[in-house]
Amino acid sequence: MVSTTQRDGETWYECEECGLLFDLEEDAKAHEQNCDDDDDGPSYIQ
């Protein structure tokens, strides 16, 4: 889910899974669909 936050007088869109901030809501939603934030780290690191 994407949430909005105010920082430095601007609206930012935050991925609630990993906390990344985006200046465009579309970018945040696109990232969220591909976000793979798990406690074990990236799946490619074994």
Provide a brief overview of the structure.
It holds the Pfam family DUF7128. The chain has 46 residues and is of the alpha+beta class.
3D shape: elongated
> What are the segments in which pLDDT stays under 50 over at least 5 consecutive residues?
none
> Strand share of the residues?
25-35%
Number of helices: 1
Terminal Cα span: 28 Å
Q: Estimate the mean pLDDT confidence.
A: 84
Would you report the number of β strands? 3
The radius of gyration is 12 Å
**Derived structural class:** alpha+beta
- H/E element string? EEEH
Q: Tell me the domain tally.
A: 1
Query: Helical percent range?
Result: 10-25%
Biggest beta-sheet profile: 3 strands, antiparallel
Widest β-sheet, arrangement of strands = 1-2-3
InterPro entries: DUF7128 (IPR055552)
Pfam family, one: DUF7128
Protein name: DUF7128 domain-containing protein
Describe the structure.
- The chain is an alpha+beta fold.
- The protein has one helix at about 25-35; strands at about 1-5, 10-15, 20.
- A hairpin with a 5-residue loop joins strand 2 (about 10-15) and strand 3 (about 20).
- The longest helix is centred in the middle third of the chain and has 10 residues, at about 25-35.
- It comes from Natronosalvus hydrolyticus.
- It holds the Pfam family DUF7128.
- This is DUF7128 domain-containing protein.
